[in-house]
Design brief:
Elements lengths: L3 E5 L3 H13 L3 E5 L2 H11 L3 E4 L8 H9 L9 E5 L6 H8 L3 E4 L4 H9 L15
Parallel strand pairs: 1-2, 1-3, 3-4, 4-5
Helix pairs in contact: 2-3
């Protein structure tokens, strides 16, 4: 069984591609189209991992990270920035804000799922059988 992954993304094309790929590899996706909805979904669903765009309407990805990292129930949930921001220093700013990882857009469909799974605890990766 795959992991439950929350994808917070306002671009419909990016959202569709990410959720399609994750679902194809057996993961269950939860979607939110803006930062506020993403925080609410994270608190309600308690996903195994959260992918979050930085440039979101209203509450941006940095605000999402600050809010989620204050929540004890979500403290251990990996929070990964998926962003087109690729300027020097962006990765450091992302990590300093509370994100656990950084993936750049455009995503590479051939490697996206394995990159995401690398942030999951070993027993939660695709194809692993925790019952063994």
């Amino acid at each position: 069984m795959g992991s439950r992954i929350l994808v917070i993304e306002d671009n419909p094309t990016n959202l569709e591609l990410m959720t399609y790929l994750l679902n194809a590899f057996g993961h269950v996706t939860i979607v939110a189209h803006d930062g506020e909805a993403g925080v609410e979904a994270a608190l309600r669903e308690l996903p195994d991992l959260i992918l979050c765009d930085l440039a979101l309407p209203g509450l941006d990805g940095f605000g999402v990270a600050r809010r989620l990292k204050r929540e004890p129930a979500l403290a251990g949930v990996p929070l990964i920035a998926v962003t087109a921001s690729a300027m020097v220093g962006d990765r450091d700013k992302v990590i300093a804000t509370g994100f656990d990882g950084y993936m750049s857009k455009p995503i590479t469909p051939e490697t996206f799922v394995s990159e995401v799974e690398a942030f999951l605890p070993p027993q939660m990766g695709h194809g692993d059988d925790p019952g063994r």
